[in-house]
Amino acid sequence: MEKIMVMGAGALGSLFGGLVANAGYDVTLVAREWHVAAIRKHGLRISGLTEITVDVKAVTSPEAAEPPDIVFFTVKSYDTETAAKQLKPCIHEETAVVSLQNGLGNEERLSEILGAEHVLGGVTSYGALLKEPGHVAHTGVGDTFIGELDGEISKRALRICEILNDGGIKAEAVADVRKKIWEKLIVNAAINPITAIARVRNEGLLHGELRWLMEATAREAASVARCAGVNIDVEAAVKKAVEVATKTGKNESSMLQDIKRGKRTEIDAISGEIVRLAEKFGMEAPINKTLHALVKNMKYQA
Ligand code: PAF
C-alpha cells in the first residue's frame, strides 16, 4: 500500500488526510507542533458534514516520516518554496506530489525545486476550517480535479483520485488541470480581496457597487487567462463568480478571515499573479492591480 503524506496539514490537508486515513490508507500529516501534539494525544477529530475521530500519524517535519509515494501538498502559497526545499530530500524517484493550493504559480515553483516529473496540479472546492488543535470542521463538499501538467491522464493521476474516492472525496483526473486552476483563481480574485477590503460576507458582493466591482474583476482576470493561452469563456467566468458568491453568501472569505486574524493573506498568489502575467503579456490589469495594492497595504490588521 502507498505511503501518503500531507505536507502542510492545516484545515483542508487535515480533512483530506483524515478521510483517506479513515479509509484504511497509511497517512502521515506534516503539521504545526500544536496540531501534531493534539492529534497524537486524541486522534484527529473531524466534525460537521463528517463526524469521525481518526487515528492518523502526525509529525512536524517530513524527515520524521517514511519516504512517501504520494504527497498532498497543502501549504499556503507563500510557504511553497520553504516547504518544497524541506520535502526534497525526503522523496524518492517515483514520488508524486500533488499541489492542492490556492492561487497560481505553485506547480511551477514545486517543479523548479523537486523536478517537474514529480509534480501534478490539483484544485479543490471542498470546505474545511481548523476549529482548534486536532479538530477540523468539514464545512463543504465540492469538486476536486487532479491532472498532469502536460495534460496526460496518467495512471498515477487516476490512482490518486481512486484513493481520494475511497476516502469519500469526489475527485476526477482531468487533462486540463491548468484551466480548472484558473477557474478557481478567477473566483478567488473576484471575491476574496473585495470582501477583505469592504469587510463583508460573500453575499455583500451581490448588490450595488460591489457587484459591479466583483464582475469587473472577474472579467479582467478571465481576459488575462485568455492572453496566457487558457481557454476560458469570459462571461461564463463572471457568472461563476456571482454563483459562488451567492452559494457561499453567509461565509466570510478566507482572505477576510486572514485579515481579521492578523494573518498573512494569499493575495500575491491570487491578484498578484494575475497582474504579473498581464504585464508579461503586455496587458494592463488595473482592477486586480488596485485590489492587490490595497490588500498588501492592509498590513493584516486585526
Ligand atoms: O477562499 C474562499 O473563501 C473560497 O474559496 C470562496 C469560494 C471564495 C468562498 O468564500
Description:
The chain has helices spanning 11-22, 33-42, 80-87, 106-114, 155-166, 177-198, 208-227, 234-247, 254-260, 268-280, 286-296; strands at residues 3-7, 26-30, 44-48, 52-54, 57-59, 70-73, 96-99, 119-124, 127-132, 135-140, 144-148, 172-173. The chain starts with a strand and ends in a 6-residue tail after the last helix. Helix 6 (177-198) packs antiparallel against helix 7, helix 6 (177-198) packs across helix 9 and helix 7 packs across helix 10. With 302 residues, it is an alpha/beta fold. The protein has two domains: 3-175, Rossmann fold, CATH 3.40.50.720; 179-296, N-(1-d-carboxylethyl)-l-norvaline Dehydrogenase, domain 2. The mean pLDDT is 96. It is built from eleven helices and twelve strands. Strands 5-2-1-6-7-8-11-12 form an eight-stranded mixed beta sheet, sandwiched between helices. It has a four-stranded mixed beta sheet with strand order 4-3-10-9. The chain is globular and about 50 Å long. It binds pantoate (PAF). Residues 187-188, 191-192, 202, 244, 248, 251, 253-254 line the site of pantoate.
